[in-house]
Write a structure and sequence with these properties.
Oligomer: single chain
Structural class: alpha+beta
Low-confidence stretches: 1-47
Helix content: 25-40%
Shape: globular
Radius of gyration: 28 Å
Mean pLDDT: 93
């Protein structure tokens, strides 16, 4: 059309030859200008009317129910600390969000973190008690939404930080999906808030970029560094319930990113060779992006922006960011090594629990967007190793930080960590900042919620392998139920029972560690055939209407990975293994994190809230012979809870010897190079990492 209009003007101009040529030509231009303006606006709208979609689509919360060991873990969470914080934990039940006075920072994030996990935990388990908690919070927040649209009690601009609202919005989003009867009032509240946010952001990024030290919402610059998170919530609103408010939603999303960039928190400048730090703190000079949880979430930043501006370079930069992160700061357990701040690869440095659950969610998000198999593997690695290792078997206690080489857990003489106290490895209520107390329970509920995803109109993928049952509706009102019966990751066979009204395509994700030669699949008890993964890493099964049964098994093998100082770590399939130490457990009533002193009884949930110190009773300073490994596997039903000591039905046996290993002020040295055996050869037992609470993971090789 634009070309046509230009040609028309040119023809008219050529036709005209008298003195009024300019006059008439200008008149025509004036007549055509509205048309050209409309065309320009339509062009912009068409470019902005669609966010780049995810490759795979998640299902509404509650569509997937847990089974087996995963259900037991979620039930323990519900009956443990996570399910009772609403009853007693001061930063939740007496939060400013519900009319109380307790907050531990100007971010006002604690109750929002809680809401973000209690909704998926409640609806995953269909737990009436937890649903009641979630509804009470939702009702209060919506009833007290301020006239200008603000969510929360803050009235002063220096207190009104946008980022802390993100977790409330995420809880609302999940609630709206799980309870369609609540969708309208939730969406209405979100529109009021996004309109206010858009207005604030147009005022030099008010509420996002702190102006000075008086803006208490800017503590640590976490909000501006994680600007993409609020944008993610707004993208859901734009995708699902725009309600004619596209301009304001799009504008708010755009300004969230622009505000972060203006504040020099542009992750594109960080995920670059030569810029990204290859060492840990305190040796990092530019510290804008060194916070570990910021990084766990920041790996989503380029993709969230790509959905908006469609710049193809952001795809490559996402992959680059993930690879750089795990190449230089990756832990064997699947998480990031960062004790608040990036710590390199040292096995005596810590990994924060918040970072584990955020890494799980980030990898799930990236897998659903790109379909890159390695991202799902990473989500599983954290879920089966890093996260459970930091929790007591009854889910009443957690560590703030854990180490790969952690032979004892206690109030240390001196902290090696960048920004975590000496008490940070103790299992308890709040061994350090309270964020992990209120954030860690999102891990398994969101893992389950991403375990099955839709592929197109008529496809369903089992993406994050685990026991569970999904009920959903595919194309043409095809009602489908898939039950996954498995002990995975402790055993690598899965049986699917499928009922479908009509035919559909079922896909099973094949982990990258799978040994195809010893893997197989059987459909409806027919002979076993070899797996044939698609380019995306799926085993595709064309399921007919009616009942179908599929049994699939994944071959696995030992993998010995070399780490710092030539120490090694041992993996097998989705599991990491560590020296299984005997220990004594000494407990005291839970301490508050700052100052470190006993909490009064009215701030505890007695007798369950205790802090646990663990002391080894068997030697931990050893060198090993990886060539001597023997795998042991038991049959029978899995023990519950699975992540207690001795819980998993498999372990490794290998040769080892005692060596000298220095400890100074409760800080282990790095693994010694070329150690000398102090004793003769002996047998030691390695257990799945997630079941070990004191452990040695990265060990030197003994001279045989």
């Amino acid at each position: 059309m634009a070309v046509y209009n230009a040609q028309l003007l040119h023809a008219i101009a050529e036709f005209l030859s008298s003195g009024f040529q300019v006059y008439l030509s200008n008149l025509i231009c004036i007549m055509l200008r509205p048309l050209l303006l409309v065309q320009a606006l339509v062009g912009l709208a068409s470019a902005a009317e669609q966010l780049v979609p995810f490759k795979y689509q998640t299902l509404p919360l509650g569509s997937i129910k847990p089974l087996g060991w995963l259900r037991n873990q979620l039930e323990l969470s519900a009956s443990g600390l996570a399910g009772h914080e609403w009853d007693f934990y001061r930063f939740v039940n007496n939060s400013t969000w519900t009319g109380g006075t307790w907050e531990y920072s100007g971010l006002h994030e604690t109750a929002p973190y809680w809401f973000n996990y209690i909704v998926p935990l409640a609806y995953t388990l269909d737990d009436a008690r937890l649903k009641k908690q979630a509804k009470e919070f939702l009702d209060h927040v919506l009833a007290t939404q301020q006239a200008d649209g603000w969510l929360g009690t803050e009235t002063k601009s220096e207190e009104r930080g946008l980022w802390g609202r993100f977790f409330v919005l995420m809880g609302m989003i999940q609630y709206a999906e799980a309870e369609p009867s609540e969708t309208e009032r939730i969406v209405t509240a979100m529109h009021k808030f996004v309109n206010l946010a858009h207005s604030m952001l147009k005022q030099n990024y008010l509420g996002l970029v702190p102006r000075d030290a008086n803006d208490v919402f800017g503590a640590g610059n976490h909000g501006v560094t994680r600007a993409h998170e609020m944008a993610t919530a707004f993208q859901w609103l734009y995708d699902n319930h725009p309600n004619g408010n596209e301009e304001n939603i799009w504008g708010a999303i755009d300004l969230m990113f622009k505000g972060g960039i203006a504040a020099q928190r542009d992750w594109r400048t960080f995920f670059v060779d030569g810029v990204f730090p290859t060492v840990g703190m305190p040796d990092i000079v530019d510290r804008r992006f060194v916070h570990g949880v910021d990084l766990a979430e920041g790996m989503r930043w380029p993709t969230a922006l790509y959905r908006l501006d469609k710049n193809q370079s952001l795809i490559e930069q996402t992959h680059k960011g993930v690879n750089l992160t795990f190449t230089y700061h990756g832990a064997n357990s699947g998480t990031i090594t960062a004790d608040e701040q990036l710590a390199g690869m040292a096995p005596n440095r810590g990994s924060e629990l918040c970072m584990s659950v955020e890494t799980m969610w980030t990898m799930s998000y990236l897998y659903n967007f790109y379909g890159t198999n390695a991202y799902a593997d990473r989500a599983e690695k954290v879920a089966f190793n890093a996260m459970p290792a930091m929790l007591t078997p009854d889910w009443w206690g957690h560590q703030y930080a854990a180490m790969a080489n952690q032979p004892f857990v206690r109030n240390m003489t001196k902290s090696i960590f960048a920004n975590i106290g000496k008490y940070g490895t103790v299992f308890g209520l709040e061994p350090n900042y309270p964020c992990c107390t209120v954030n860690h329970p999102q891990g398994y509920p969101k893992f389950l919620a991403n375990s099955f995803v839709k592929y197109g109109n008529n496809g369903l993928i089992h993406a994050l392998l685990s026991p569970g049952e999904v009920k959903t509706i595919l194309a043409n009102n095809n009602q489908v139920t898939v039950t996954s019966t498995t002990d995975y990751p402790f055993r690598t066979t899965i049986t699917y029972s499928i009922n479908a009204v009509k035919a559909f395509d079922f896909y099973i994700r094949i982990p990258e560690w799978t040994v195809l030669g010893s893997s197989g699949i059987s459909i409806n008890s027919n002979s076993v055939s070899r797996l044939k993964p698609t380019a995306e890493g799926h085993q595709k099964v064309s399921v007919r209407a009616g009942k179908t049964e599929i049994t699939i098994s994944f071959g696995q093998q030992l993998e010995v990975v070399t780490r710092m100082n030539d120490a090694v770590a041992i993996h097998r399939g989705p599991l990491l293994y560590a020296l299984d130490l005997e220990y004594t457990d000494t407990s005291i009533p839970s301490q508050q994190y700052n100052p470190l002193q006993p909490l009064p009884d009215n701030q505890l949930y007695l007798p369950y809230t205790k802090d646990h110190s663990l002391t080894p009773t068997t030697p931990w300073a050893i060198a090993i012979d990886p060539k001597s490994i023997k795998v042991h596997e038991e049959g029978g039903a899995l023990r519950e809870p699975i992540y207690k000591k001795g819980g998993p039905p498999l372990w490794l046996e290998l040769d080892a010897c005692d060596i000298d290993w220095a400890v100074t002020d409760d800080i282990l040295d790095l693994p010694p190079k070329n150690p000398v055996c102090k004793s003769g050869k002996k047998k030691v037992r390695f257990a799945p990492y997630g079941s070990t609470k004191v452990r040695m993971t990265e060990l030197p090789i003994m001279k045989v």
